[in-house]
Amino acid sequence: MKSRQEERLVTEAWFHPADQPMENMPRWEYHVHSDFSDGTSSVSAVIGAARARGIQRLILTEHTEPELVAGPGWFERYVRTVRDLRQSEAGTMEVVIGLEVPIVDLEGNLLASEAMLDEAEFVLGAVHAYPGYGWDLSGIDPGRAIELEFRGLMVLADHPRVHAIAHPGGVCGKYVTPFPMELFEDVVIRARERGKAIELNPAYHHPMGPFLEICRRHGVLLSPGSNAHHPDEIGLAWEVLQELRP
Length: 246
Ligand SMILES: [Zn+2]
Ligand SMILES: [Zn+2]
Known about the structure:
The protein has 246 residues and is α/β, with parallel strands linked by helices. The protein contains 9 helices and 8 strands. The chain is globular and about 50 Å long. One zinc ion binds next to loops.
């Protein structure tokens, strides 16, 4: 029986170096939401779908924004539920209790309590609502959006609690203006220096090829995340990466 500390230990081996052949990447899915946050399905249904798709490590990454979670006490119920259900997957699929945690400012504060960060086995740091702006980015100056996204991503790369950086450049690119690839590259370089993984996420990095190319050039660790809010989306990031292999 592994200790809690060992169970929680995210090692470099959890991620695939971008300069290694993609076909060597096991079937990993590192970005999934159940109905404990804004996903459509129960943890049980998510696990069943991942098992059916041959996923070898499934990381649930529930949001922590209060407007996206399943009411008071959701986190404790989430942890308990995953701990109960994953026992029957032991030996075939590893199921990990993760969180997708946004920054709340540019000083390194995250939207999660210390207790939650202690309990979570995997922390996917994200830039979501830009500090000072909230969710509504209509009318934001494109240059300002690029700056806030970039600074937020660098905060995450430097953050000791963060294991992987969710969809870098994605919010800016999806809702405001294309995020400059040279800034994406700067984030990749910083992540590489800090031993953090870069998430490649088909919901935001489309087409993914140019993003993978930059990651490959720097040999950064990759975190394959599909942003799955429905079981049918599980495994998509891994599949896209397989198609992109040279
Ligand atoms: Zn969501
Ligand atoms: Zn996100």
